[in-house]
Recover the amino acids of this structure.
């Protein structure tokens, strides 16, 4: 078992204030012998999801972390393909589902301007089973108080119900990159790969041909 260093902070886990002094200590998680690449607490602050390399996911109780130095996961899912570098976890607002997005979404090549397509999974937080999955997207985000997700891909953005697989709304955007939605579901921000015509409208560039060429 690989030692996992977790910071027990009073701001993160309110119950910890009364259980023990704030600080750090080392715990081990059963069957977790891999580097931890993603970590997230749920909204109720009583569960933690950990993602490791090669698509391995561990779900643990905060109360177990507070009470024990050796923790057995509530459940673990070791069979998710396409998450070699781990997954970035996110809980739905009601804590019933966990969204995992493939890590290392951006290409690092100096000549690359495009966002790398990624894979995503949505798991049932009760048992870790996959309820939805997809690929060839740039970003995914839960919508508040719903079973819907906002998906950004190269073609634009889409709101989709991940349980029924029904598309609720979509908007075509050429060379779309990333998107995010506000907590009240009323505002969407997105980025896209601009062309020269777009750059000509930027005040700092104007008619500066050398800068426009770059």
């Amino acid at each position: 078992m690989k030692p996992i260093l977790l910071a027990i902070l009073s701001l993160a886990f309110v119950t910890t204030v009364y259980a023990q002094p704030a600080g750090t200590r080392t715990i081990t998680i059963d069957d977790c012998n891999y580097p931890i690449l993603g970590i997230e607490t749920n909204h109720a602050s009583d569960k933690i999801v950990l993602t490791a390399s090669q698509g391995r996911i561990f779900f643990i109780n905060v109360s177990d972390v507070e009470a024990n130095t050796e923790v057995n996961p509530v459940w673990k899912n070791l069979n998710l393909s396409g998450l070699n570098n781990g997954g970035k976890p996110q809980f739905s607002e009601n804590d019933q589902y966990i969204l995992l997005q493939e890590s290392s979404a951006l290409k690092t090549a100096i000549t690359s301007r495009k966002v790398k397509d990624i894979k995503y999974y949505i798991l049932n937080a009760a048992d870790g089973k996959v309820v939805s999955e997809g690929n060839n997207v740039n970003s995914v985000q839960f919508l508040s108080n719903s079973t819907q997700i906002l998906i950004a891909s190269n073609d634009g953005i889409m709101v989709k119900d991940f349980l029924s697989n029904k598309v609720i709304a979509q908007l075509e955007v050429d060379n779309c990159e990333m998107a995010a939605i506000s907590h009240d579901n009323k505002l969407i921000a997105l980025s896209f790969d601009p062309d020269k015509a777009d750059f000509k409208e930027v005040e700092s560039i104007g008619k500066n041909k050398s800068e426009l060429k770059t």
